[in-house]
């Protein structure tokens, strides 16, 4: 087996990750709309929230981050970075993530009422603009693979709010290449993920005015690796993180990529992925979250 890492953990901004690609377009849109504050949310260890706050700051805007639950006793990992960035933090006091979405909307409306110009980014930044950033990432990957004369058998990615997965599928349509894209869900049920991806790819095709005819069979989502829940590490993910660090000096993360690597290892052991395969592993970042999970190690 040959595993190639697409190092999107090194996207070169605010400690990296897939959200840098999405924010390149989302923040440009916020600037075009003359926004002065960006509102988003997630869990307190959200990589998306950290990168959004950093991108907003760099563009001269304020950032408000809505987090599920209550303020943790100690600020570490991504949360520490949010505080260093001077983001305003709001807690929903419940683990129900739909309340996070509602609170993001209430905070945005409140800022508008105060005469501010807020720009709302949904959790995970999985809008059409976010999706397009991953369509372009596929074009970039294809160029790199062509230069190296490598044709992979599989792409492995982590499926959260689904913009990355949808963007990659759209990207393969866009460049006219075929690929087997395997998404490992770390939060949503498969059916919900499929619905979101279908909608995102359709909306992206409409936005670009380009047909991106996705066959439902091309949406592959595996849900056997979530463990006890989103943000809760599994023993297999912990082992995968240790193994990749010790073999390659690459840090996976406890919430997303660690679980996806655990899935790749398990699916290979069980023969679902043939041993002679070449796999592109999209390392979408998240290592700052390790510092919020010290006790798990
Ligand atoms: C957000 C995130 C993902 C998932 O991307 P989505 O577009 O939300 O599906 C994967 N890995 C890391 C490290 C992330 O922060």
Task: Give the secondary structure arrangement, pairings included.
Elements: E1 2-7, H1 19-32, E2 37-42, H2 47-58, E3 62-67, H3 77-84, E4 88-91, H4 97-113, E5 118-120, H5 128-147, E6 154-159, H6 163-175, E7 180-185, H7 190-208, E8 220-222, H8 235-248, H9 257-269, E9 278-283
Parallel strand pairs: 1-9, 2-3, 2-5, 3-4, 6-7, 6-9, 7-8
Bound molecules: pyridoxal-5'-phosphate.
Offer a concise description of the structure.
This protein is α/β, with parallel strands linked by helices and 297 residues long. Helices cover 44% and strands 15% of the residues. Strands 1-9-6-7-8 form a 5-stranded parallel β-sheet, sandwiched between helices. Strands 4-3-2-5 form a 4-stranded parallel β-sheet, sandwiched between helices.
Task: Tell me about this structure.
The chain has 297 residues and is an alpha/beta fold. 44% of the residues lie in helices and 15% in strands. It contains nine helices and nine strands. It has helices at 19-32, 47-58, 77-84, 97-113, 128-147, 163-175, 190-208, 235-248, 257-269; strands at residues 2-7, 37-42, 62-67, 88-91, 118-120, 154-159, 180-185, 220-222, 278-283. Strand 3 (62-67), helix 3 and strand 4 form a beta-alpha-beta unit. Helix 1 (19-32) packs across helix 2 (47-58), helix 2 (47-58) runs parallel beside helix 3 (77-84) and helix 8 packs across helix 9. The longest helix has 20 residues, at 128-147. The model has no long low-confidence stretch (mean pLDDT 97). Bound molecules: pyridoxal-5'-phosphate. Residues 17-18, 47-48, 124, 126, 158-165, 253, 256-257, 284-286 line the site of pyridoxal-5'-phosphate (PLP). Pyridoxal-5'-phosphate binds at residues 17-18, 47-48, 124, 126, 158-165, 253, 256-257, 284-286.
């Amino acid at each position: 087996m040959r595993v190639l890492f697409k190092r999107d953990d090194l996207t070169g901004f605010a400690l990296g990750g897939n959200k840098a690609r999405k924010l390149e377009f989302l923040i440009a849109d916020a600037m075009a709309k003359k926004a002065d504050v960006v509102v988003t949310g997630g869990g307190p260890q959200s990589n998306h929230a950290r990168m959004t706050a950093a991108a907003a700051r760099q563009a001269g805007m304020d950032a408000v981050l809505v987090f599920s639950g209550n303020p943790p006793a100690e600020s570490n990992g991504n949360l520490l970075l949010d505080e260093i960035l001077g983001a305003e933090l709001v807690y929903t006091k419940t683990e129900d993530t739909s309340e996070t979405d509602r609170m993001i909307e209430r905070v945005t409306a409140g800022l508008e009422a105060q005469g501010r110009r807020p720009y709302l980014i949904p959790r995970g930044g999985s809008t059409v603009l976010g999706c397009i950033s991953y369509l372009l990432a596929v074009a970039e990957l294809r160029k790199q693979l062509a230069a190296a004369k490598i044709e992979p058998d599989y792409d492995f990615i982590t499926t959260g709010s689904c913009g990355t997965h949808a963007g990659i599928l759209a990207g393969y349509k866009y460049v006219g290449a075929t690929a087997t894209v395997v998404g490992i869900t770390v939060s949503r049920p498969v059916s919900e993920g499929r619905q979101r991806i279908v909608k995102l790819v359709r909306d992206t095709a409409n936005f670009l005015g380009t047909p991106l005819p996705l066959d439902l069979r091309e949406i592959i989502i595996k849900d056997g690796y979530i463990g006890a829940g989103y943000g809760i590490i599994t023993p297999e993910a912990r082992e995968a993180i240790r193994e990749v660090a010790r073999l390659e000096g690459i840090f996976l993360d406890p919430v997303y990529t660690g679980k996806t690597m655990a899935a790749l290892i398990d699916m290979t052991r069980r023969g679902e992925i043939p041993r002679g395969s070449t796999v592109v592993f999209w390392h979408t970042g998240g290592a700052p979250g390790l510092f919020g999970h010290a006790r798990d190690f």
